């Protein structure tokens, strides 16, 4: 196999695995479809926005949960809700799922539960970020070699 | 973050060019939605804050066709934004959320959302949002139709045109006045292409307001009404004399009781384009109007509705596929047609001419003792839809070749009343087709019943698509068998925007004074 085909194969396989492992869902595929000549880096850009947003929200949650005087669960919940919405934008399934349980803990005003969820969310977010960055790298290599992802 | 994407809303391919305002505090979604909407060939403006969105909407009132907003936003509840938009701009609003709980969705609908989308949103969902814009337009027109006694008047005055004095213009004057108007209209036409072209303030004649008006008129007495007197009696501080004057034109005082004479107006108006196809005058029949002389007087009840959308630019994006509007009306056509109107019997000198602007309005004001019971009113629909005219409200008397034209109508019949009373008498149309043809969607109004009810309603609207060339409307009064004294009768209150308007406000004012001195 020549290098382009190889890279292509790699890219496709990796992409598939992300889906299989539940890191991303069909929404991610939709984003890839939206990418075109007018916005060749669309997916990367969207992902970057997502990462930024994620980090900001996770920090908010951490701060709110750290409050010794009393946790403002409403605030935490608001951030979780936002994260949930954000994750749905790129199809970050695992992150979204954590958010769902996170919200129940918020409603129950369960600080412990919330903290656990926060940990999980942070973990899932990092995993996803790594995976996507790898995917993007593969894509770059493929394009550089003259191939395309379509 | 706000990105601007203003541009003219007109595109050839409907619904391409739909101007969408997206409001979402999530930057990721904002980017994705923008991309998706652009792929649908819509024009997108994005906003990260509800406040910014409202500002944008207020700045360019007619700059958008639809708003899509997330439910959760930091600075303002999405529902609140929804309310504001609904109240202030009356645009369709779609809500979005990752939360699909029924209660939330219901809340959205209660607050007036025309749709509620769940995130993640797919492109196919966005592709169809134009339906909401279209639907709203249709409903708006229908609502207007069903409003009896309510009027939305487009009060536009082209400054200098409004002549508020008692003289009646001679034919000569009318011609020149009309020419002036034409020129202005043409100018306006061009302006119209600008989405933000002027929207004049509109007085909405609510039932209450109208009741006050009626009371005042009754108090003063039909024969003595005049806008100033009415205004004084009504005691509505913000109302102007001009408002009352045009309302007076539109109202058939004889039928105050049944509110037939009043049609409400504003209809979404395709921007810059309203064209009414006036049937070829030589298509004869349609142009025949015969007068019922049973009492030797003509019923002034031709009512036709001229709807003009005041929201001129609101639905400026009007590329509704089937509806084609031509920008220019051709007054000439009508004129010719009218000239063919048979004079109803010899007793009445109904001069079809009067439909022609060029007609010389002979002899000045001999309206002295005559009263014109109702001014020809006509409503014109500028809506894009074929609207059926409710029988009591309007009758399309002019066959407008329906080229999907929603212009149903009109033509007027100036009719005057007998001296003693303002009665409406039926005008029987020779050509049944006449009325029927234009009743799109068919409210078939049997001619017979029309006779009684025919009222001329003429609503001033922004657009007088009616190409009737009725700039100068001559109303000829009948007074029993005696020859009619010609009364130059000009009705119109023409807001002008984009179409050559057929009415010259000056003339109108003249009549006003002349008739109701």
Automatic annotation (TrEMBL), chain A:
Pfam families: Hpt. Its main location: cytoplasm. Residues 39-145 form the HPt domain. The keyword Cytoplasm applies. The keyword Secreted does not apply. One of its GO terms (cellular component) is cytoplasm. SUPFAM superfamilies: Histidine-containing phosphotransfer domain, HPT domain. GO terms for molecular function: histidine phosphotransfer kinase activity; protein histidine kinase binding. The modification Phosphohistidine is found at residue 81. It is found in: Cytoplasm, Cytosol; Nucleus. It comes from the Eukaryota. InterPro entries: AHP1-5/YPD1, HPT_dom_sf, Sig_transdc_His_kin_Hpt_dom. CDD domains: HPT (cd00088). GO terms for biological process: cytokinin-activated signaling pathway; phosphorelay signal transduction system. Keywords: Acetylation, Cytokinin signaling pathway, Cytoplasm, Nucleus, Phosphoprotein, Two-component regulatory system. Functions as a two-component phosphorelay mediators between cytokinin sensor histidine kinases and response regulators (B-type ARRs). Plays an important role in propagating cytokinin signal transduction. Histidine-containing phosphotransfer domain (HPt) contains an active histidine that mediates the phosphotransfer. This is Histidine-containing phosphotransfer protein. The lineage of its organism: Eukaryota, Viridiplantae, Streptophyta, Embryophyta, Tracheophyta.
Automatic annotation (TrEMBL), chain B:
Residues 19-134 form the Response regulatory domain. One of its GO terms (molecular function) is DNA binding. It is found in: Nucleus. Keywords: Activator, Cytokinin signaling pathway, DNA-binding, Nucleus, Phosphoprotein, Transcription, Transcription regulation, Two-component regulatory system. It holds the Pfam family Response_reg. The keyword DNA-binding applies. Coiled coil: none annotated. The modification 4-aspartylphosphate is found at residue 70. One of its GO terms (cellular component) is nucleus. CDD domains: REC_typeB_ARR-like (cd17584). Residues 181-193 have a biased composition (Basic and acidic residues). Belongs to the ARR family. Type-B subfamily. PANTHER family: TWO-COMPONENT RESPONSE REGULATOR (PTHR43874), TWO-COMPONENT RESPONSE REGULATOR ARR11 (PTHR43874:SF137). Binds the target DNA as a monomer. This is Two-component response regulator ORR26 isoform X2. It comes from Theobroma cacao.
